[in-house]
């Protein structure tokens, strides 16, 4: 080819003639080599940047498509390159927000795998896709504030659907969450709040205002921290690693508040026992005399009540004769030995009674009232027996507890038990979720 001919080919008219010749029998609605072997398409991705990962929406860039758009500033960002052997390079720049289903059982000490799914609308009979030798570029330069990309892998598979078999390419990013943010925002404040609740063990037990205020403040602070952490997470049913830590910290600060309640109760209980006098009889004869007098007084009251009560349930005659006889006998017994000076306390006659028909409404109402009173007495007796059983159970439980005379012993034991328990919990927690 002479230089003049080469210059002629480089002219726009010649280039257009060549393209027209190549596209002479080409139909834009059909794939190249339609009806023959399937078209092979090689795929590769160049990552410009990662934006962020959201645990609430479980989204990140370059995953299953939820929202995407092409860049068109200043023109549509599409590149097409045609090689002499018929190879076509087609590239576009786009931003996509896609879904990534996360397992948050170990949050925030977790690792996540987020996948990019690429698929076309042609079956494997028409189009076959494959990854290039270097499928992804720019992963090493990508940086995220909350996670670190520790690796990636590519896979391809065939998805069998009702309309046919389709090729699908997958790019899986392996991400490790950075816990520095959570250490300074959640874990360290929780540890300090728990340790602050232990200060009450060194405060005098008589300083009620100081110890109660300190305990309530630490409990409310832990509640605020827990609420702030949950607001940045989706409402999931299972328990996360950070939930376990916050709940245990809340248990420790609440137990410190209950410890002072035990100290205060023990202190005032011992003080009341010291002030309560115990009456001890000086002589056995005096004790017996008192018991005899009490019993005699009770017997006299019972006899007096029996004399004044007349049961007319089965009496169908007038009670007047029996009342007159009782009045005469009482007058005889109330006269002095000289029979000249009567005693002034003469029992008065009971009110008059009327004979009632057994089937009269008044008699039925009286019977119903007696039955209701009997049921009420049975209910009261049952209630008293239950209360007595509860009191006996409480006394038995209290007898099994050690008798503490010095309340400062509780504080001294708590100064050792609480820190040791918290250290053991942290060792188990961090050993399980990290190592």
TrEMBL record:
The chain crosses the membrane at residues 179-203, 210-229, 244-267, 416-434. One of its GO terms (molecular function) is extracellular ligand-gated monoatomic ion channel activity. It comes from the Eukaryota. Keywords: Cell membrane, Chloride, Chloride channel, Disulfide bond, Glycoprotein, Ion channel, Ion transport, Ligand-gated ion channel, Membrane, Postsynaptic cell membrane, Receptor, Signal, Synapse, Transmembrane, Transmembrane helix, Transport. It is a multi-pass membrane protein. Residues 61-178 form the Neurotransmitter-gated ion-channel ligand-binding domain. Gene3D superfamilies: Neurotransmitter-gated ion-channel ligand-binding domain, Neurotransmitter-gated ion-channel transmembrane domain. The keyword Magnesium does not apply. Its main location: membrane. Coiled coil: none annotated. Belongs to the ligand-gated ion channel (TC 1.A.9) family. Gamma-aminobutyric acid receptor (TC 1.A.9.5) subfamily. This is Neurotransmitter-gated ion-channel transmembrane domain-containing protein. It comes from Strigamia maritima.
């Amino acid at each position: 080819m002479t230089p003049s001919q080469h210059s002629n080919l480089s002219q726009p008219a010649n280039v257009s003639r060549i393209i027209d010749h190549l596209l002479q029998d080409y139909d834009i609605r059909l794939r190249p080599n339609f009806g023959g072997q399937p078209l092979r398409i090689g795929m590769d991705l160049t990552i410009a940047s990662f934006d962020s990962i959201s645990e609430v929406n479980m989204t990140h860039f370059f995953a299953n498509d939820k929202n995407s758009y092409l860049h068109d500033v200043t023109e549509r960002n599409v590149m097409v390159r045609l090689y002499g052997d018929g190879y076509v390079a087609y590239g576009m720049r786009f931003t996509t927000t896609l879904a990534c289903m996360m397992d948050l059982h170990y949050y925030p000490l977790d690792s996540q795998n987020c996948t990019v799914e690429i698929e076309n609308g042609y079956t494997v009979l028409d189009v076959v896709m494959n990854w290039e030798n270097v499928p992804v570029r720019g992963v090493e330069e990508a940086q995220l504030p909350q996670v670190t990309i520790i690796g990636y892998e590519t896979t391809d598979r065939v998805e069998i659907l009702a309309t046919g078999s389709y090729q699908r390419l997958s790019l899986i990013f392996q991400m490790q969450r950075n816990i520095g943010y959570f250490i300074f925002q959640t874990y360290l404040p929780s540890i300090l709040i728990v340790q602050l609740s232990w200060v009450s063990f060194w405060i005098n037990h008589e300083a009620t205002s100081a110890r109660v205020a300190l305990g309530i403040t630490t409990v409310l602070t832990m509640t605020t921290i827990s609420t702030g952490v949950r607001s940045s997470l989706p409402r999931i049913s299972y328990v996360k690693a950070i939930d376990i830590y916050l709940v245990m910290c809340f248990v420790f600060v609440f137990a410190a508040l209950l410890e002072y309640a035990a100290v205060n109760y023990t202190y005032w209980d011992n003080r009341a026992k010291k002030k309560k006098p115990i009456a001890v009889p000086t002589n056995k004869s005096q004790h017996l005399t008192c018991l005899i007098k009490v019993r005699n007084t009770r017997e006299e009251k019972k006899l007096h009540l029996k004399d004044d009560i007349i049961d007319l349930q089965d009496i169908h005659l007038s009670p007047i004769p029996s009342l007159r006889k009782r009045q005469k006998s009482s007058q005889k017994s109330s006269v002095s030995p000289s029979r000249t000076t009567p005693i002034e306390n003469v029992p008065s006659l009971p009110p008059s009674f009327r004979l009632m028909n057994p089937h009269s409404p008044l008699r039925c109402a009286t019977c119903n009232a007696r039955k209701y009173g009997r049921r009420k007495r049975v209910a009261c007796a049952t209630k008293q027996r239950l209360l007595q059983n509860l009191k006996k159970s409480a006394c038995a439980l209290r007898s099994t507890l050690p008798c503490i005379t010095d309340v400062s012993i509780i504080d001294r034991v708590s100064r050792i038990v609480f820190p040791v328990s918290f250290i053991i919990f942290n060792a188990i927690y961090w050993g399980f979720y990290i190592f």
